[in-house]
Amino acid sequence: MDSAANTRAIDSLLNYETVKYFNNEEYEARRYDRQMQDWEDAATRSQVSLSWLNLGQQVIIALGVTAMMWRAANGVVDGSMTIGDLVLVNAFLIQLYMPLNFLGVVYREIRQALADIERMFDLLAVNREIADAPNATALAAGAVEIRFCEVDFSYESNRQILQRIDFSIPAGRTLAIVGESGSGKSTLARLLYRFYDVSGGRILLNGIDLRDLTQASLRAAIGIVPQDTVLFNDTIYYNIQYGKPEANREQVIAAAAAAQLSGFIDLLPDGYETRVGERGLKLSGGEKQRVAIARALLKNPPVLIFDEATSALDSKTEKAIETSLDNAARGRTTLVIAHRLSTIMNADEILVMDAGRIVERGSHTTLLDAAGLYAQMWALQQLEESGDAAASLVTEG
Ligand SMILES: Nc1ncnc2c1ncn2[C@@H]1O[C@H](COP(=O)(O)OP(=O)(O)OP(=O)(O)O)[C@@H](O)[C@H]1O
Ligand SMILES: [Mg+2]
User: Fold this and answer.
1) Longest alpha-carbon distance in the chain
2) Class of domain 146-396 (CATH, top level)
3) Where are the domains of the chain?
4) For the domain bounded by 2-125, which CATH number is listed?
5) End-to-end distance of the chain based on CA atoms, in angstroms?
6) 208, 243, 332, 389 — which has fewest CB within 10 A?
7) Which pLDDT tens digit goes with each residue over 378-388?
């Protein structure tokens, strides 16, 4: 009950913005109160049972002591025992029942300890979902070629997420993935990081199955800018340096510059030492995203994954950052997931995903010529952009 109440409190405190958006302080307080009420009931029950235990113990001890003293007194009366014997019996009994008194408290502590131990063993019994194979090898340094061979995947057995995904990214090339929300794009990145194992098919890196590589070497080779960035409650400097803790100050500053962050940091009174707040709350969405880009660039891995890396940026900053991203991608195997198609026009190959399948593939121009889903998406986005441009002309005019 105690830990359940704590979990609830932490959850509502972490999400305090959501609580406030919906004006639900009362609701959260009531929920916590209910949990505390349960805890209170349990604590009272435990205290009551302990009191009964103590009471019973005291009664038994008192009866026993009385009976023994009475017998000893009788012995003195009929002359079979001396006064000294009576004092002896009394002294023995005192020595015996003092420690007996503690038994109740000790019993309760043992029960509490057993409950804790049980939880600890439950935790130890949880198997790691992903473990290194016994003969796992390290991924060799240098360029990496990625192949997905007929990959099937589901998070839960009753819902297939990816179906027969088959593609390869030659070393140093860029592959882009587009598709509607929920089609499984981020899942591909998670599989590549081996947060989950595939349900069918294989993922090969330089011809070696992912499952035969050590996770440490695999993850060292991949840099990712995730879809939602979460930062540590520390300084901007710390958060950028996190990509490569041994990096020196020049390298961190260069990475920040490449991610178009230096202008923003120069404006801050505390500069790089500005604290970002819990989960990066004090930074805007675009600033957080650029911190994530900076630390991926700092890590400097042979494989880069950008999962909607610029989705929170305005078009001008996006244009500015595109050059650094293109530079970063040069010579690296890169997987770009994007919604805005104009950012991935230059990719070597584009995959269009729909409901966990690849429905179209090819370069930008071949996909446009095919006049399929991609061409539709492209036309729609062009329309929106020209609409925006027209709207801005109208407001400016
Ligand atoms: N941990 C998980 N457990 C169960 N299902 C999950 C889990 N993560 C994602 N899913 C489901 O898998 C599907 C694919 O998710 P994924 O994050 O790959 O989508 P996406 O293509 O990246 O979408 P978006 O463009 O919105 O980011 C979704 O329908 C989602 O509900
Ligand atoms: Mg996604």
Assistant:
1) 124
2) alpha beta
3) 2-125, 146-396
4) 1.20.1560.10
5) 64
6) 389
7) 998 888 877 76
The answer, yes or no, to whether any atom of ligand 1 lies below 6 A from the CB of 155, is yes
pTM over 0.85: no
* Structure confidence by residue, pLDDT tens digits, 123-154: 998 887 788 888 888 888 888 899 999 999 99
Q: Which ligand minimizes its atom distance to the CA of 339? A: 1
Ligand nearest to the CA of 188: 1
Give pLDDT tens digits for 315-368.
777 777 777 788 778 888 999 998 888 888 888 899 999 988 999 999 999 988
Ligand 1: which residue has its CA nearest to atom 22?
A: 186
